[in-house]
Structures are given as structure tokens and as C-alpha cells.
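[job 0412] stage=fold_complex status=start
inputs:
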Amino acid sequence: MASKTLQTLLVYAVLLALSAVFISPFLWMLSTSLKHESRIFPKPGEPPQWIPTTARVDAEGRPLVIYEGREGVDLGPDEMGRHVLRFGATEVTAWPGDFEVRQRSGLHWQNYADAFHKMAFWQNLRNTLFICVTVVLGTLVSCSLVAYSFARIPWPGRDTVFILVLATMMLPYQVTLIPLFALYRELGWVGTFKPLILPAFFGTPFYIFLLRQFFLGVPQDLSASARIDGCNEFGIYLFIMLPLSKPALATTALFMFLFQWADFLSPLVYLQDDRQYTLAIALQQFQSHHESAWGPLMAMSSVITIPIIFLFFLTQRTFIQGITLTGLKG
Amino acid sequence: MTRIERRNLRNGILFALPYLIGGTVFMVYPLVMSVYYSLCHYNIITPATFAGLDNYRVLFSHDEVFWKSVYNTLYFTAFSVPLSLILAIGLAVLLNQAVKGLSVFRTVFFLPTIVPIVASAVLWLWVLNPESGLINGMLRAFLHIEGPGWIADVQWSKPSLILMSLWAVGGPMVIFLAGLADVPAVLYEAAEIDGAGPWQKFRNVTLPMLTPTILFNLVMGLIAAFQYFTQVYVMTAGKGTPADSTMFYALYLYRNSFVYLKMGYASAMALLLFLVILAATAGVLASSKRWVHYHGE
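[job 0412] stage=fold_complex status=done
writing structure:
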């Protein structure tokens, strides 16, 4: 009995330790995103700082600074980028690295404002949402139609064609990328959303498979009685199959949305104007141009990640079920 | 053909039409064209000119970076895939001990897999930052040792990426959890009656019963590792630095096609990748007859 308790304690200890390791990069991201620049890079010998700090300010909102041992107020940068510092009656100018901004524990939201400002954030968000929503709709319509054919209509040659559809899943995207790029270039579509959106309206093997498995499980008598009532095949699909398949359709929509939200390669290849960028591309571009702006970078990473985490909590059940379903039957 | 059969054929094809078109345009046509381009010199701006097996010849005998990218990809795969499987099984088994707060722990381990890859790559650049990053900061503060340069160091860049890939074991872990739920409790009871300890139960009951799930995750892991791209693109600004130590196969393929505009050459690389993926999958599936146990057999 005692060894059982010991074993349980050990399991909890290991799980807690590993949880700390897994969660710490997230906390580090949030913490950095809310830190004043002067505390993002710790001084030599200091351990990593978890509690964010922000500038200590006077009654008028001006940061308090220490310069050459004296305490003063930062009046802001001049046109050269040097800051004007006031000590009592005297004023001096100094470069940002030469004086220290006094800190207090607190959230430094400025990084978020900087990131939004530098990235055309709202435009990028609109692009991303437009692509996500269109692709989700296209996938739901096309994949459910095709899956219905493979699950519920007994046509000659069906099973052979279905195997071929599954076989196309094995094709790595690198193989299709270059000929499709050449094709879209021919059509003048490079630099538009079309190459990112259009294929979704013609079905994706993975989701065709997922929906087919689900449709197979819907009782045949429902279709049969509808057929006796004079309902045609499309009516059965629309009024019987789709309403009964909400869980599978929700899984499909959710996975496709997440995939598009984060998709990197296709937007990288096809979008050329920064006004068209999705959030993922905009973040990568921002990173490659501002390599050490860790505050705004972590702010932007948080902004891209938090909606997804929120969505995950809202749909956790659909999510885990979907993964296990596709995983075990795939 | 009866009237009903004819109607079924018509309806079946009509419903499947989106993918009958889509599969032809977005899969079959590009596959055929890829084979053709791989036999051509093609820079996308001027029409392709036939060059026989020239691209393949250059790849195999005159391109050191190609072989470097093959080596890097195999190195990454050889460590990342098995370590991920072991960690995922370990976590799943721990979570399966009927612990309280299972869903909280599961969420914690699963969350990293849903973070957009670009965001997690930027985050890890910062975590691995040699001067101010989390890992070296912790090493300095608690163990008083100076950590390596991680992603910036030729020796450590690939281990950094492997470490990072372990953060995303939540996907396979959830699948293993579902696999564990399917293990009949009687097997454990029988093992206990035979006097088996925890390790023997794991070794002789859990592990054999998990082999179908291991097979699935192994195949998926291999395919993903061979195509590893986004993380390394973001973390090295698409360059595979330092000194090509993170020049992975898919990254070099991308550079050939969209940086050097050697589309024929890149097509040859893409087809080779396809063949390797097919061969590896077939190899694993063939070997699985010897080590995968299906229940009820």
C-alpha cells in the first residue's frame, strides 16, 4: 500500500516537473512581450526575470531615468534619436543605451502597440481571416459532396477510385509545388489569393476520408425512407446526411481553420505584396527585419497564438476526438 | 445496366466531381509535369529545355550542399523521430495512471502542438538565444555554466532543432493515450496474478498492445521529418545557417526553386524525396509484420 502511494507521488512529481518545462516557453513569451526593453536583456549575472517590468513614470507620464548617477526625467527623443533628459533645471541629451530607465513591476503594453504599428496588423488579420473562412467553406462543401459519393452511392469503380484518392495523400507538397507555381504564373495568379483558396473547393483527400468514415456510420434506413418519400440523392445529402454529421463537419472546419491560420509555405510562395501577407508571413518578415526587437516579436507571437489557444479551449472535446479518430483510423 | 445502376453511376460521379477534377489538376497533372521538369533545365521565365538526366547527374556527383542536406535531414530524423515517440509514450503512460487532473496535464502537453509554427520558431529563437535566452539564463543562474550557442553554433544547431521538436510531442501523445484506453484491463490483471511488476507490465502488456499506434506515429513522424521546413526557414531566415548545418532537404529544395530559380533541378529533388518517402513507408510497413501485434489476432 505504501509503495502504491509512493508510486503515485512519483508520477505526480514527474508530471508536474515536465509540465513546468512544457509551459515555461509560453510564460517566457508572455513575460517578454510585456517587459520594458531595458529588462529584456538581463544584466550579467542576473537570472532570467519572469515578472514583467515597465518604466517608472512621473505624474505627467514621463519615464524616470538614472544618468551618471543622477535621477531625472526623460523628455523624449530629439530628431537625432538622442533623448533629452532633465535634471532639476539642467537638460542634457544622451543616447538610449547610456541612461537607465527606472523600472517597477508592471505590464509594459507598448510592445504590442509597436508590433501592431510596424506590421499593418489589421490588414494582415483581415487577409488571414478571409483566407481561413473561404478555405473552410470550400473544404466543407467539396469534401462532404465527394465523401457522400464514396460512402453512400454504390457506383461501379467507386472503390478503386477511392483507393486512388487515398494514394494522392502520399504525394509530398514539394512534388506538386513547382508545376502548380508555373501554372498559376501562366494564369497571372501569383500575387493573388487564388492559389491559396481555389484548391479547397476541389476537395482534400484527408478530409474526404474523415467524412467518408463518418458517413458510413449513418444508418441506411434513414436514406431509404427518404428515398421512398421521393427525396433525390442531393436532398438526402443536404437534409439528412449533413445535419447528422455536425461533429465530423466541425472537426473538419476546426482543423482546416487552424491549418490555414498557421500555414506558411503557400503564402510564402504566392503572396508578394506586404499588404497581402497573412499573420504568419508578416511575423516572419517582421522577425527577419527586426531580429533583436524581442519585445514586439514576442507580443506578435502571443497575438497569433492566443486566439488559437482560446479556440482550443472552446472546442477541446471536438479537438481531441478528431485527433484520436483520424489517428487511429488513418 | 439497370436504370438504378445508371442513376447511381451518374450521381456517384456528379458528387465526386470536385475531387475528380481537383485530383487531376492539383495532383496528377503536377506529378506528371514534375517528372518532365526534372528532365529539363527550367528557370520558369524561359520555356523548359530538355536535358535528359543532367539534373540527377549533377545532384549525385557535383553538389556537396545536396549531400549535406541529405545528411542533415537524416541526422534530424534519426534523433527526432525515435525520441519523440519515446517521450510521447512516456507521457501517455504517466497520464494513464488514472491521475487526477488528467485533462489539465493533457492540455499542457498538447498546447505546444497547436501554436502556429512561425510563432513557435520565433519563440524558440528567443528561448535559445545564447546571451539572453531562457535556457542559457537558467544554466547560468542555477548551474553556473555557460550554455552553448545553440542555433547559432554549428555543433549545436541540429540538436537545438531536435530539442525543439520534442516540445511538440502532444499530437502523438494524445493518439497514444487513446491507444492505451483500448488496452483491455484483464491483461493487466492477468499479468498481476503472474506476479509482474510495473516494468514487466509495461514491457509485456502495454508496449505490445501499443505497437499499432507506434506504427502509425512512426510513419507520420518519418514523413513529417523528411519534409521539415518551416521551423528552420524562420529560424535561419531561409539560409540554413550556420555553415549549412541546418540546410535541410526541403529548405535546399525551396532555395533551388525560388531563390536560384533552378526549377528543373528542384523537381528532380522533389521526385527523389517522394521516392524516399515511399520506400521508407513501405520499408516500415513491411517490417511491421514482425513487430506489430493487432488485438484479436
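[job 0412] summary: Chain A has 15 helices and seven strands.
[job 0412] exit 0
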